[in-house]
């Protein structure tokens, strides 16, 4: 039977583009979580919307489950295939179709990588504002399906703010064309938003139209050092009150910094001494340059909110400062197994939450290595519990589970979210009720039934049907 299915897929996309070797099943069947054992039936690489539609229709007629797959950098187990699913990889659908510098829009296929899109925009002297460390691998389709946030969210928002239109293939094979470039369109329910953040559970995104922005005028990057985590919201408040034109405001602890320095021997700290926490502030200073950043740093120094600060003097130094932040995830992966929490808190409650989190970690997990960093101006923190290489993983996972429950209770008490930007996938499915009410989850199930009555689109992800 499997052979018949594979023969059909080959007839649609060509035999070269149906992969069944053990190594392909292994690598296309997993994402960055590396928690689940992949076991897909086959990997199919269509080259057009029409081919995606034919595959989906066939899977629907034969009750085969489908897993849409982008760059597989997901951190929630959304694109893993563990149960003989057909993985549809959008790798071959990588055309940038149009860059419009009047309407400031870009249209492309879903398999374009984020970096390709950023570079194409830059070649046209405009700017695509989503940015994250996995940009070289992640796809625009994956970014939309996860409603990716990233490091420029504080200024430009995430995918939900950037997407104008979508083309989606439904599990039935029907092509839903919502791929408009309109900025304003008040004609009933805006269905595209159901697919943004749907983690491949409603349909396969094949094409998108998104907003472009003007290139930032004059970026200035400063790395600041402080003694206390609790000062970081105060630093943000001061920047806001001094009308800093913030384009990024990122935070990491000394433990995160050490992991990066250990894994990147060529990268040196710009500070003479060690400090407990660091903030990377990027502003678009326009014509102001140093005149904009200096009074802000002076004010932070004068009030003892920071101990030290350096301002990048060249483009190379700016890139170097960013690499202290952008290398954190990869350096953690190189250091051992990490259990990750990607959480958000109402920004005005960050101070109280951080105090509670510090107390919790000191009481419950003083022997755990907890690496904290994130897009703190969005209220988004990444908590990574690290099991260094050689650790007995089952013992580690047991102690993390106890701590995680208490952290989630704390998040709930602050009306935060257990997933700020990575999504739910398989990894956080059991925890969804911390952040969504029973009524919300029931309505989500109802929406899923409308688009996917047979439950063949990425089944078992976000919630069970
Ligand atoms: C080093 C590193 C840094 C990261 N930094 C950030 C960050 O700052 N902000 C952030 O938000 N995330 C971040 N991530 C997480 C990840 O990069 C994002 O979730 C990204 O958007 C996933 O894109 P992808 O193409 O790799 O998707 P995949 O991992 O392939 O898939 C993710 C989900 O989307 C679905 N999907 C993929 N393509 C499609 C499609 N065409 N149609 C329908 N569904 C689809 C999959 O089924 C799955 O559920 C980071 C990851 C890494 C490894």
Give a short synopsis of this structure.
The chain is of the alpha+beta class and 465 residues long. Helix content is 35%, strand content 21%.
Attribute tags:
465 residues; alpha+beta; Alpha-Beta Plaits; seven-stranded antiparallel β-sheet; five-stranded antiparallel β-sheet; 21% strand; binds flavin-adenine dinucleotide
Explain this structure to me?
The chain has 465 residues and is α+β, with helices and mostly antiparallel strands. The chain folds into four domains: 2-89, Uridine Diphospho-n-acetylenolpyruvylglucosamine Reductase, domain 2; 96-214, Uridine Diphospho-n-acetylenolpyruvylglucosamine Reductase, domain 3; 219-326, 2-Layer Sandwich (Alpha-Beta Plaits), CATH 3.30.70; 337-434, Alpha-Beta Plaits. Helices cover 35% and strands 21% of the residues. The protein has helices at 2-13, 22-28, 49-61, 114-123, 140-145, 153-156, 159-162, 192-195, 232-241, 254-263, 290-302, 315-326, 328-335, 350-364, 393-413, 438-451, and strands at 18-19, 42-44, 66-69, 86-89, 96-100, 105-109, 126-127, 163-169, 175-178, 204-211, 213-214, 219-226, 246-253, 277-284, 308-311, 336-344, 369-374, 380-388. Strands 15-12-14-13-17-18-16 form a seven-stranded antiparallel β-sheet, sandwiched between helices. A five-stranded antiparallel β-sheet has the order 5-6-10-8-9. A hairpin with a 5-residue loop joins β17 (369-374) and β18 (380-388). α1 (2-13) packs antiparallel against α3 (49-61), α10 crosses α13 and α14 (350-364) runs antiparallel to α15 (393-413). It is globular and about 70 Å long. The two termini are 26 Å apart. The protein binds flavin-adenine dinucleotide (FAD). Residues 31-32, 67-75, 78-79, 90, 110, 132-134, 138-139, 141-143, 145-146, 148-151, 199-200, 204-205, 329-330, 421-422, 425, 458, 461 line the site of flavin-adenine dinucleotide (FAD). Flavin-adenine dinucleotide (FAD) binds next to β3, α5, β10 and α13.
């Amino acid at each position: 039977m499997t052979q018949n299915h594979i023969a059909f897929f080959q007839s649609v996309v060509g035999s070269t583009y149906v992969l069944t070797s053990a190594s392909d099943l292994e690598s296309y069947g997993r994402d960055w979580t590396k928690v689940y054992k992949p076991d897909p039936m086959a990997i199919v690489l269509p080259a057009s919307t029409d081919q995606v539609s034919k595959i989906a229709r066939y899977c629907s007629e034969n009750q085969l489950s489908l897993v849409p797959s982008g760059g597989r950098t997901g951190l929630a187990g959304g694109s893993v295939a563990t149960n003989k699913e057909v993985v549809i990889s959008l790798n071959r659908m990588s055309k940038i179709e149009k860059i419009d510098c009047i309407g400031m829009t870009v249209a492309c296929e879903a398999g374009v990588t984020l970096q390709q899109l950023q570079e194409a925009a830059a070649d046209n002297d405009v700017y695509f504002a989503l940015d994250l460390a996995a940009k070289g691998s992640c796809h625009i389709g994956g970014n939309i399906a996860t409603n990716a946030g990233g490091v420029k969210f504080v200024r430009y928002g995430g995918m939900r703010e950037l997407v104008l239109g979508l083309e989606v293939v439904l599990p039935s094979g029907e092509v839903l064309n919502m791929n408009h470039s309109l900025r304003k369109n008040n004609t009933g329910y805006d269905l595209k938003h159901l697919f943004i953040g749907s983690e491949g559970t409603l349909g396969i995104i094949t094409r998108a139209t998104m907003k472009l922005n003007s290139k930032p005028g004059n970026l200035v990057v400063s790395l600041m050092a402080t003694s206390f985590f609790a000062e970081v919201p105060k630093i943000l408040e001061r920047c806001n009150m001094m009308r800093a034109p913030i384009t990024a405001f990122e935070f990491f602890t000394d433990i995160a910094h050490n992991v990066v320095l250990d894994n990147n021997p060529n990268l040196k700290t710009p500070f003479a001494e060690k400090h407990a926490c660091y903030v990377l502030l990027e502003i678009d200073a326009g014509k102001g340059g140093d005149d904009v950043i200096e009074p802000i740093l002076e004010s932070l120094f004068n009030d003892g909110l920071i101990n030290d600060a350096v301002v990048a003097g060249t483009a190379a130094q700016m890139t170097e400062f960013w690499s202290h932040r952008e290398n954190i995830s990869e350096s953690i992966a190189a250091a051992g197994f990490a259990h990750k929490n990607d959480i958000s808190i109402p920004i005005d409650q960050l101070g109280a939450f951080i105090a509670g989190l510090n107390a919790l970690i000191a009481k419950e997990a003083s022997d755990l290595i907890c690496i904290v960093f994130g897009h703190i101006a969005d209220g988004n923190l990444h908590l990574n519990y690290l099991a260094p290489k050689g650790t007995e993983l089952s013992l580690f996972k047991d102690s993390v589970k106890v701590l995680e429950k208490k952290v989630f209770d704390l998040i709930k008490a602050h009306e935060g979210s257990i997933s700020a930007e990575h999504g739910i996938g398989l990894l956080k499915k059991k925890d969804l009720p911390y952040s969504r009410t029973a009524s919300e989850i029931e309505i989500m199930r109802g929406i899923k039934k409308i688009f996917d009555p047979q439950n063949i689109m990425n089944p078992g992800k976000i919630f069970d049907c």
